[in-house]
Design a protein that fits this description.
The complex is a heterodimer of chains A (86) and B (227). Chain A has two helices and three strands. The two termini of chain A are 26 Å apart. Chain B has 227 residues and is α/β, with parallel strands linked by helices. Chain B contains five helices and eleven strands. Chain B has a nine-stranded mixed β-sheet with strand order 2-1-3-4-11-10-9-6-7, sandwiched between helices. A two-stranded antiparallel ribbon of chain B has the order 5-8. In chain B, strand 10 and strand 11 form a beta hairpin. Chains A and B meet through helix 1 of A and loops of B.
């Protein structure tokens, strides 16, 4: 491996329930926030954030996207977005 | 087909109700074969049960990791060739994650884990697992889950209803907010059934609220014995 440089790309995959899916956890949080003084919050939806390090620079986004579609997100109920950290 | 009918029951890390499923199979006089999640061989069983519990701690999503087990790969292939497969609770979640059944199971609408005896109506008695019931029969079976709300897009729900693929429906109250009170569904071929309630916990009145779960285990072997 002499001369090989491993580039680590940090990718963030955010997974959120699809808009049409009832999110009772988010609703519970939204109900609680006003009592804590956040009385202008009208809606909360809760999702998941995956921070992934990929030892590949060129195809990191494509790899993360395939992982998201295959396992990180359930396409029946969830959408995902990907961004690469600088 | 082997001389002795056997039903396989899978154990995943975190499965809880595998032993009760085995007990239910034996209660109807059938040999139960424990199947290990890491073993891709189905050992010639005539049907497979994916039991309830918390496989992989429900990490990521219930059933999301178990779905990638070697045994599930074999079960999916066999199911597509007609092998009867029953997914109970977490097993139903695995079947949906593996896309052997449409839709998904998500967090109960009321956010609480519900553990109670639940009335169900049996709406489809043409599946491999429900032929010993009468259409419209009401049964009493325990439910115990925190993520049992069945959801699917509108077109899928419409198709399930139009094609009579809803097998069990909650009656007298919906424990989790499932769309259309759907408690269990089947695929078009009727060999794959998933349900959130636990028929293996309703096989005798000593240990359960009724023996209404027994016909699920007699149904699947009825066709085999007569073949």
């Amino acid at each position: 491996m002499v001369g090989r440089v491993w580039q680590v790309t940090r990718v963030v995959v955010d997974v959120m329930p699809k808009p049409e899916i009832l999110d009772p956890q988010g609703q519970a949080i939204a109900r609680a926030l006003p009592d804590l003084g956040f009385d202008t919050v009208t809606s909360v939806r809760q999702g998941k954030r995956f921070e992934i390090e990929i030892a590949d620079g060129a195809d990191a986004r494509e790899i993360a996207s395939r992982a998201a579609e295959a396992v990180l997100a359930n396409p029946v109920i969830e959408d995902f977005t990907i961004h690469i950290e600088d | 087909m082997s001389a002795t009918t056997t039903i396989g029951v899978v154990t995943f890390p975190g499965s809880l109700d595998d032993h009760d499923a085995i007990r239910a199979v034996r209660a109807v006089g059938v040999e139960a074969v424990p199947l290990w999640h890491g073993d891709a061989a189905l050992h010639g069983v005539d049907a497979v049960i994916l039991p309830g519990g918390f496989s992989y701690g429900d990490y990521l999503r219930g059933g999301a990791i178990a779905r990638f087990s070697p045994v599930v790969g074999s079960v999916v292939a066999a199911a597509r060739s007609g092998l009867p497969v029953l997914g109970i609770c977490n097993g139903f979640q695995v079947l949906c994650e593996a896309q052997l059944l449409p839709g998904a199971l998500v967090r109960n609408a009321g956010l609480r884990f519900v553990c109670r005896d639940q009335v169900l109506t049996v709406e489809n008695t043409s599946t491999r697992w429900t032929s010993d019931y009468s259409p419209g029969e009401e049964i009493l079976v325990p439910v115990k889950h925190g993520e049992g709300r069945y959801v699917a897009d509108a077109a899928t729900v419409e198709q399930l209803e139009a094609e009579g693929l809803v097998v069990f429906r909650y009656a007298g109250g919906n424990p989790n907010g499932a769309l259309h009170d759907i408690a269990g569904i089947t695929n078009s071929a009727g060999n794959v059934v998933g349900l959130m309630p636990h028929p293996e916990h309703a096989i005798d009145t000593l240990t359960g609220p009724s023996a209404d779960g027994l016909p699920m285990f007699t149904s699947v072997v009825a066709a085999m014995v007569s073949a």
